[in-house]
Amino acid sequence: MKYIIRAVKYFVQLMVILSLIIAILIVAKIVDSDISKIFVNGYDSLWQIALMMAAFAAIYPSFGYGRRRVVVPGADEEVLPVLDKVMTAYRYEREKRTDGRVCYRKASVPDRILRLWEDRISVERLATGFELEGYNRDVVRLVNALRDAIYE
Q1: What is the predicted pLDDT for the residue at 27?
Q2: Is residue 104 exposed (0-12), middle (13-18) or buried (19+ Cβ within 10 Å)?
């Protein structure tokens, strides 16, 4: 279900960006204001563009979100403060903490809006360290920051 929601949000975001670009081009008088003159296939191009964006949006969540593991030796009392320090440094705030799982959200509202409220990083405690789940680019950065913080 989460995958479908992410795909729909991404589709809407792509269509809004495309519409803004077309509107800017029309306002700047770079292209004609008639849709049938902007695109080769006229109004048929709109559903073709929407179909391409839908295909891209359907594939994106599988590449854009993921899980990574990081080996972090030590007891919870030693490593959880380091985790909190790293997450705070990357502008995340703790949202909730359950048994063996901690969730963080972006502290900044504009960051949350730009991520379409898909900014949650879930951290699960494993026997050998942590498993982070969320937006792939952030997860990779956080895993590397955790490694650096633990082994410095």
Answers
A1: 92
A2: buried
Give the CA distances from residue 52 to residues 35, 45, 94, in Å, rounded to whole numbers and listed in that order: 18, 10, 37
* H and E: helices and strands count for the chain: 6, 5
Token pair 């790293």 in the structure block, residue: 86
- How distant is the alpha carbon of residue 13 from its chain centre? 12
Distance of alpha carbon 121 from its chain centroid, rounded? 10
Nearest to 105 by CA among 86, 89, 91, 116: 91
pTM above 0.85, yes or no: no
Which backbone phi and psi does 140 adopt, to 5 degrees? -65, -45
Between 25 and 113, name the one with better pLDDT: 25
